[in-house]
Amino acid sequence: MISIIIASANKNLLNDVSVNIRETIGVEYEIISFDNAGAAKGICEVYNKGIQAARYNLICFMHEDICIKTSNWGFIVQDCFDTRPELGLLGIAGGRYKTLFPCSWYIGSEKSDRYQLLQHFKHQTVAAKVDFNNPNNEKLSMVSSIDGVWFCTRREVLNEVRFDELLLKGFHGYDLDFSLNVGKKWDIGVTFDVLLEHFSEGKYDREWVKSILLVHKKWNETLPKQAGNDFDKQECAALEQKAFETLMYAMAEAGYLKVQMRKVLWNSKLPGILGWKRYFKMHCFISALRVQAV
């Protein structure tokens, strides 16, 4: 039995995904949806209200612009949690290494990133594609953070962990923050037994930057974090470099000033991981960026 919580911005999409859930889940379920078409409430607040209303022990949070392609996926979710009492969070995409430098779970690394979905693009003129990375051919891969498009957890976890609606008022960063909170006590996994189709991609806009910076300020003392502890010093440095470049490009595109970018770099404590020579080159990288006028 699974409670499904959805923050809805589009009635048609909500209807479509509700039909899809009914046809594929295979177990008893309930859908708890909230009309948030005007974006009056942040997703953390909506999800916390959903938790209060949920009746079942397993709770699934999902976006409405998806279509689940796997039959009887509810049994798969139940089995993951029933056979692994240490599992606290289950997603379909996530990262094994969470960088010290502010960024999402995704870094663009075969060794760190784990995902399987059919991805469409709304903000780019790019053809839909199968996004898949599972280098160890695992059914369940342990990660340190997951993507918010679809994820499940247990009532036991939610009795101790909620979404930080005081910190995050919008629609970004909640998945990373929730992952880091759950990961203090429980394992986090990405399943490759559930396939879904996602009809829009993430967007690294100004609100995303703002949220990511807030989350990293909150968790700065506990990062970096990795699942498995199999990343050597050189690999960690390369991943931090990727995260740095991703955020700097996003900040430049969003119209942030270079002095603001340098402040983020200065506060990141990266010299301890990368060394001062590479740290100096990062400042040169910022100097060469072209900042978008807003």
UniProtKB/TrEMBL annotation:
Keyword terms of this UniProt record: Transferase
InterPro entries the record matches: Nucleotide-diphossugar_trans, StrF_dom
Pfam families: Glyco_tranf_2_5
GO MF term list: transferase activity
Residue ranges of domain Streptomycin biosynthesis protein StrF in the record: 4-184
Mitochondrion in keyword set: no
Signal peptide: none
Entry keyword Disulfide bond: no
Protein name stated in the entry: Glycosyltransferase like family protein
